[in-house]
Amino acid sequence: MSIMEYNGGSVIAMVGKECVAIASDLRLGNQSLGISSNFQKIFPVSDRIYLGLPGLATDVTTLKEVFRYRVNMYTIKEEREIEPETFAHLVSSTLYERRFGPYFIEPVMAGLEKTPTGAYKPFIAATDLIGCLNFAKDFVVAGTASTKLFGVAEGLWEPDLEPEDLFETCAQTLLNAVDRDAYSGWGAEVYVITKDKVIKRTLKGRMD
């Protein structure tokens, strides 16, 4: 078994019309043994950026704190809030620094990028465990159910979804994909980020 699958868990991010969604399951396992059904994998970076960390649970905790420190240092030095694309490159360089003994995490980032006109543009990205960036215009997936997430998302996602439709699409994609994966599931957490607010919903999933 790969160390990436040791604790299980999956994350997906999707683009909508002036909004983004990011969702994860809530399972923490020790291979096929379930340990917790309330393990957080999505963390706020700023009001407009959220970060999903599927992978080895110890590295989830470590990296969450590393990114919190680095974003705070950026905010103090630059005297402004970090933008999603800048944060994606910060994540990439942090992981690449440790490429010879990497963190076993494949981060997923979702946020709203401020354009020069003052409007907000949806932004999603993911990296592998050594920081190779993947920018997408539709959706990005990571975790043990990533192949199933790709399949369901390809069938359900449409361009320019409104926040409510985006939530429904993202939630159904995740719930249906993790049902076919033994290492993910046990409920889900979905964040929809719009320019005015962030909507967080916790969903019940199959517990078998």
What does this molecule look like?
The protein is built from 4 helices and 12 strands, in the order ββββββααββββααββ. With 208 residues, it is an alpha+beta fold. It has a 5-stranded antiparallel sheet with strand order 10-1-2-11-12, with helices on one face. The chain has a 5-stranded antiparallel sheet with strand order 5-6-7-8-9, with helices on one face. β1 and β2 form a beta hairpin. The longest helix has 22 residues. The chain starts with 9 loop residues before the first strand and ends in a 5-residue tail after the last strand.
Supply the key terms:
single chain, 208 residues, alpha+beta, five-stranded antiparallel beta sheet
Pick out the low-confidence regions.
none
Number of strands: 12
Cα end-to-end separation: 21 Å
What is the rounded Rg?
16 Å
Structural class: alpha+beta
Largest sheet, in brief, is: 5 strands, antiparallel
Strand content: 25-35%
Output mean pLDDT. 96
Write out the strand line-up for the largest beta sheet, numbering strands in chain order. 10-1-2-11-12
Order of helices and strands: EEEEEEHHEEEEHHEE
Considering DSSP H and I runs of 4 or more, what fraction of the residues is helical?
A: 25-40%
Q: What's the total helix number?
A: 4
Query: Looking at the structure, what is the overall shape?
Result: globular
